[in-house]
TrEMBL record:
<dbReference type="GO" id="GO:1901259">
    <property type="term" value="P:chloroplast rRNA processing"/>
</dbReference>
<dbReference type="GO" id="GO:0009535">
    <property type="term" value="C:chloroplast thylakoid membrane"/>
</dbReference>
<dbReference type="GO" id="GO:0019843">
    <property type="term" value="F:rRNA binding"/>
</dbReference>
<keyword id="KW-0689">Ribosomal protein</keyword>
<keyword id="KW-0934">Plastid</keyword>
<keyword id="KW-0694">RNA-binding</keyword>
<keyword id="KW-0699">rRNA-binding</keyword>
<comment type="similarity">
    <text>Belongs to the chloroplast-specific ribosomal protein cS22 family.</text>
</comment>
<keyword id="KW-0809">Transit peptide</keyword>
<dbReference type="InterPro" id="IPR050502">
    <property type="entry name" value="Euk_RNA-bind_prot"/>
</dbReference>
<dbReference type="Pfam" id="PF00076">
    <property type="entry name" value="RRM_1"/>
</dbReference>
<comment type="subunit">
    <text>Component of the chloroplast small ribosomal subunit (SSU). Mature 70S chloroplast ribosomes of higher plants consist of a small (30S) and a large (50S) subunit. The 30S small subunit contains 1 molecule of ribosomal RNA (16S rRNA) and 24 different proteins. The 50S large subunit contains 3 rRNA molecules (23S, 5S and 4.5S rRNA) and 33 different proteins.</text>
</comment>
<feature type="domain" description="RRM">
    <location>
        <begin position="1"/>
        <end position="47"/>
    </location>
</feature>
<dbReference type="InterPro" id="IPR012677">
    <property type="entry name" value="Nucleotide-bd_a/b_plait_sf"/>
</dbReference>
<dbReference type="InterPro" id="IPR000504">
    <property type="entry name" value="RRM_dom"/>
</dbReference>
<keyword id="KW-0687">Ribonucleoprotein</keyword>
<dbReference type="InterPro" id="IPR035979">
    <property type="entry name" value="RBD_domain_sf"/>
</dbReference>
C-alpha cells in the first residue's frame, strides 16, 4: 500500500489466498522472515467469505468486482487498459472484473493488474492459455 500524497510505501500489503489452509500455511512458513531487510508479520485480517454467502465486492474508484477466483497479471505494457485486459480474459472464461493498477495520484499504469472470475476452472483456463504470452508490446506473467 502506498501513501496517496507522497507515493511512499506505507510498509504493509494485502495478499488474497485461495483457501484458508493456504493462508495458514503462508503464516506458518513466512511469518517472521526477512524481506527487504525487515522482519515481516503475517496474519489473517478478516473472516474469509463462505462460498454460500459470497458477495460481489466493488471498489469505489474502479467498480472492480472482486472474487476469491482472481489472477494477478504482471509485466503489462503501459498502454494496456482495463477494458483491454477484460476483453482478452473474457475469451478464456466468465470475467467478473478486471483492473489495471495505477501509480497513486496519476493515471499511469503500474504495469500490473487483476482479473476476477466466477470459478476456479476459469482461473486455471486463463493461466494455462495466457501465461507468458505477448500482449501489445510486452509479455504477461499471470499468477
Amino acid at each position: 500500500m502506498y501513501d496517496k500524497y507522497s507515493g511512499r510505501s506505507r510498509r504493509f500489503a494485502f495478499v488474497v489466498m485461495k483457501t484458508v489452509e493456504d493462508a495458514n500455511t503462508a503464516i506458518e512458513k513466512l511469518n517472521g522472515t526477512e524481506v527487504g531487510g525487515r522482519e515481516i508479520k503475517i496474519n489473517i485480517t478478516e473472516k474469509p467469505l463462505s462460498t454460500v454467502d459470497f458477495p460481489l465486492l466493488q471498489t469505489e474508484e474502479s467498480q472492480f468486482v472482486d472474487s476469491p477466483h482472481k489472477v494477478y497479471v504482471g509485466n503489462l505494457a503501459k498502454t494496456v487498459t482495463t477494458d483491454m485486459l477484460e476483453k482478452l480474459f473474457s475469451e478464456k472464461g466468465k470475467v467478473l472484473g478486471a483492473k489495471v493498477s495505477r501509480v497513486p495520484g496519476t493515471s499511469k499504469s503500474s504495469g500490473f493488474g487483476f482479473v476476477s472470475f466466477s470459478s476456479d476452472e476459469d482461473v486455471e483456463a486463463s493461466i494455462t492459455s495466457l501465461n507468458n504470452t505477448c500482449y501489445v508490446d510486452g509479455h504477461m506473467d499471470i499468477h
